[in-house]
Amino acid sequence: MNSKDCFKLYSEMLFIRHVEEMIVKKYHEQKMRCPVHLSIGQEAAAVGVCHALLKKDRIFSNHRSHGHYLAKKGDLKKMLAEIYGKYAGCCGGRGGSMHLFDKSQNITASVPLVSSSIALAVGSALSSKIDNSKEVTVSFLGDGSVEEGIFHESLNFASINKLPIIFVCENNLYSVYTPINERQPIRPFNKLGEAHAVKSYVCDGNDVLKIYEITKKLVKNCRLNKGPFFLTLNTYRHREHCGPNYDNTIGYRTEKEFKLWKKKDPIKNFKKKLINNYHFNERQLEELSLKLNKSINKAFNFAEKSKLPTPDLIKKYIYA
Ligand SMILES: Cc1ncc(C[n+]2csc(CCOP(=O)(O)OP(=O)(O)O)c2C)c(N)n1
Ligand SMILES: [Mg+2]
Predict the structure, then answer these.
(1) Per residue in 289-299, pLDDT tens?
(2) Ligand 1 in contact with 228 (CB < 6 A)?
(3) Looking at the domain assignment, is residue 104 inside a domain?
(4) What is the 299 CA–ligand 2 centroid distance (Å)?
(5) Which long-range contacts (CB under 8 A, 24 or more apart) does 124-127 make?
(6) By residue range, what is the domain housing residue 280?
(7) Tens-digit pLDDT profile for residues 60-75
């Protein structure tokens, strides 16, 4: 990949990091009244995958959806307004952080019921196949998600119908506070896909370049009707399961493990790569950081100043 594209990948990851760090900074003001599941530490997955997609391709996400939404070029102002519960939000302020949509970018749904958006994504891929439209669907899911029956039904259906879909599992080792080895038998993760005859790959989830390269191949193959695929990205969330804080002191994961994964920070390491291998300098990257923060501040101002929905809207979208 050339240096210009690498800079783009870095910029997209840093953008997500800065947005979520600003949420951290402002969350205590209690103006954002919905739960937030931050993806700090997992930005490479969202950016590496979405960078390999075209605008027409569709993504489906879960409760940890900010990174996916922003990486697929969802509108930041509408996302923040949604988190602030404002009418200008992408769901009119009715959904909050876990319901991010942007039809204009084909961010079709994020749904916090664990695994439920996988089946919706399969429906999306089925429609692309019927229409022969060559759109690819990505279903983002977590390691906890593979424990739900709908995951297996969805892979089975996608496999038998050869659907243009990539199931992307971000394995961050935890479902809330329960580590994966207390929830699942020890077996290679890609066996989960192979059991349904879905070609499966495992990739370093903190290496944005590797993720981009492998997704690009899978997307190409999906367009050639060679899907579906199951891609596991091994990564780690830095913050608590839900909320702006750290929760390492409550005992479900060790400080040692946390520090080990912090060293694998996808953004810090890619920054080193940009400087050492692609000849960028600290000043250029600092300028980028300032520029991103400027636009992020504007979007927060917009969200904070936007109007709340009025009471008469309560019945809108209620059909019975
Ligand atoms: C059907 C269902 N069961 C339980 C929950 C509560 N819940 C919310 S997030 C979560 C953990 C999911 O873990 P994982 O899929 O690994 O995603 P991560 O939070 O690690 O990103 C659970 C159990 C839920 N939202 N939906
Ligand atoms: Mg998890």
Answers:
(1) 999 999 999 99
(2) no
(3) yes
(4) 29
(5) 124/58, 124/60, 124/165, 125/158, 125/163, 125/164, 125/165, 125/227, 125/228, 126/161, 126/163
(6) 3-305
(7) 999 999 999 999 999 9
* Residues contacting 217, CB < 8 A, separation 6+: none
CA nearest 123: which of 111, 79, 49? Answer: 111
Is 318 within a domain? Answer: no
Number of domains observed in the structure of the chain: 1
If you search the block for the tokens 């390269």, which residue do you land on?
213
Whether 64 lines ligand 1, by a CB cut-off of 6 Å, is: yes
Cβ of 144 less than 6 Å from ligand 1? yes
CATH code for the domain in which residue 165 is found: 3.40.50.970
Among the listed residues 158, 159, 166, 60, the one whose alpha carbon sits nearest the alpha carbon of residue 115: 60
42 pocket-lining for ligand 1 (C-beta < 6 Å): no
Q: 181 lies in a domain?
A: yes
Is the pTM above the cut of 0.90? yes
- Residues 12-30: what's their mean pLDDT? 98
Q: Which amino acid is at 175?
A: S
Examine residue 313 and state whether it is found in any structural domain, yes or no.
no
What is the average pLDDT across 171-190?
96
Phi-psi region of 135 (alpha: psi -120 to 50; beta: other; left: phi over 0): beta
pLDDT at 316 over 90: no
**60/118 Cα distance (integer angstroms):** 7
